């Protein structure tokens, strides 16, 4: 099977955790807490609706017992999982191309370990479920869901762009000739030059007026704006200002704390204590995005997570971040994420393209957020 580096990170985590028998915790900066970890006593992968594979490890056992749908299937030494994880880590780090195969030795062990579907079925945003024991308090937490974010390949996304996440502007003073000229501005490779188009809009004396967000077709409304309203009614304007500053003002800053720092200084919502309220708003938005809020579907404010996420660093280190309304976790997201501006494709809403609607002209900007 060929997977990309990020996708190979998921089976790697399973092998690594079963081999080590220990899951270390991360602090708000993404650094390991040397004195805080959980013993892994069970790992569950939902490979398909009709295939749930459970790996059990007793406190003193050196063997991993494997059950499929509740029936015993195999038992393998824990050290074999760790050796396979090390080989897989090497294969991932040396892999070439957008997707690639791994060594025969690793593939053979996948079969022995009953890992027939390497990318497990995600359940409520969780890629793997763990039963853990806190060795300090002797507290057992059963079947906690974790999503897996691998840094082997591209930085993983926190908030995915969609046509419905596009910020919508009306271009006052625009003509059909302006529309044709602006839509013809491309870079040397023939790609849409978003910044240059924004500059051209201002240079022509056109006035971009923020009027909301793009319609989500299935929801039949501005679903993203509606979802942001649940978190804070001022968030739609805050995010619009972030994009305005980048594209129309030419601010190259992308790290979230720096981007919000400019919002604090400008205070577009004219609020008291901006240095407290804007970071709180953005942290709440990022946490909601982690918990399942998207731009295209109306959200009720409820999260789809009961545990957190596991990160895999480039060197193969595995760390866990608990996400249960933890201020430390929100601070981690805030301090370790950045804005990104994807291709101006149809899947991203054809943003930066002027269009006419009802005799008026409009223009969208868009974004996504990644973990660094």
Q: What's the short story on this structure?
A:
By secondary structure, this protein is α+β, with helices and mostly antiparallel strands.
- Rough outline: elongated
Tally of extended strands? 16
Largest sheet: 6 strands, mixed, barrel
Count of helices? 10
What is the total number of structural domains? 2
Percent helix range: 25-40%
- Poorly predicted tracts of residues: none
Strand content range: 25-35%
Distance linking N and C termini = 28 Å
In the sheet with the most strands, the strands line up as 1-2-6-7-11-12
Structural class of the helix and strand makeup?
alpha+beta
Output the helix-strand order: HEEEEEHHEEEEHHEHHHHEEHEEEE
Average predicted confidence as pLDDT: 91
**Nearest-angstrom radius of gyration?**
24 Å
SSE blueprint:
Blueprint: H1 5-20, E1 22-26, E2 32-48, E3 51-56, E4 63-68, E5 71-77, H2 78-94, H3 104-112, E6 128-133, E7 140-150, E8 157-159, E9 167-172, H4 176-183, H5 194-203, E10 207-213, H6 223-231, H7 235-247, H8 256-266, H9 274-290, E11 308-312, E12 318-322, H10 327-336, E13 337-340, E14 355-357, E15 360-365, E16 368-371
Helix pairs in contact: 1-2, 8-9, 9-10
Can you describe this structure?
There is one protein chain. With 372 residues, the protein is α+β, with helices and mostly antiparallel strands. It has helices at 5-20, 78-94, 104-112, 176-183, 194-203, 223-231, 235-247, 256-266, 274-290, 327-336, and strands at 22-26, 32-48, 51-56, 63-68, 71-77, 128-133, 140-150, 157-159, 167-172, 207-213, 308-312, 318-322, 337-340, 355-357, 360-365, 368-371. The protein has 2 domains: 5-154, no CATH class; 159-304 and 319-371, no CATH class. The chain is built from 10 helices and 16 strands. The strands form 3 sheets. A 6-stranded mixed barrel has the order 1-2-6-7-11-12. Helix 1 runs antiparallel to helix 2, helix 8 (256-266) packs across helix 9 and helix 9 packs across helix 10 (327-336). The two termini are 28 Å apart.
